[in-house]
């Protein structure tokens, strides 16, 4: 069905206003984060999609700083949990304590854990045990936690931005596939360019340091998330997403290399994530509808943690990123 002209006009006006606000967001972030424009864009796509992000990079690349900066500019209250092998589920979710009032009557009282926030930073998430990772899994997927059989709803919007160190893997617990699939995107944080690092050194080693300022609030961010879901997706873009997902799966793939090298591929949740992410990217760039170029640009961050290569493919030196890039090039 074709939307009424007045609805399209209203949507376009809302998109224009949102793009202007998001430009202010990016300008505020740029006061504190240097040379990570693509990383910032992908992180904003995650938040606008209403999802969760996994930031992967070596130590000292401003992953923690970026998460806190995003919390400041979006007006979301944030908390940070440093994941360690001895971290227990109750350390994240909260626990019940036994209270006694003046009359001697005893009752249990729930003390919320750090997960009760709008933006949770799970620092070095792969250092926690699978039991603790599973405790966070329900919160990420369901938007509530259950303690002692009682449901406790999390605030909305709720986002998890987790960090992971690709080195120093001793004493870590690889994230299970089910939990990896809960992350909308895996965002790789690279080393800065020479010019960006020069700006970092000058800006952060002086007597005063600039910092981001609030631009949005939780209610406005929720409105932007609603707008993203209302944006139209053309048939060509939709088919590009479907073709990409089909080619990335080993069962029935028309690509011989994928059929031989991929152990398991992306499921429908990957398509949902990509549909939302390409809309968010279009909005960030001032466009009303996403294009196949958006699909190609975000294919890697959305798919790389949802695919696994066979042992033989890894032994031959095949790389997931290169494989996705080749598949995505056909979608553009």
From TrEMBL:
Record domain ATPase AAA-3: where: 52-185
Name of the protein in its database record: MoxR-like ATPase
Organism listed in the record: Glycocaulis alkaliphilus
UniProt cross-references to SUPFAM superfamilies, sorted A to Z: P-loop containing nucleoside triphosphate hydrolases (SSF52540)
Gene3D superfamilies with a match to the protein in the record: Magnesium chelatase subunit I, C-Terminal domain, P-loop containing nucleotide triphosphate hydrolases
GO molecular function: ATP binding; ATP hydrolysis activity
InterPro entries membership: ATPase_AAA-3 (IPR011703), CbbQ/NirQ/NorQ/GpvN (IPR050764), ChlI/MoxR_AAA_lid (IPR041628), P-loop_NTPase (IPR027417)
Record-annotated ChlI/MoxR AAA lid domain positions: 257-323
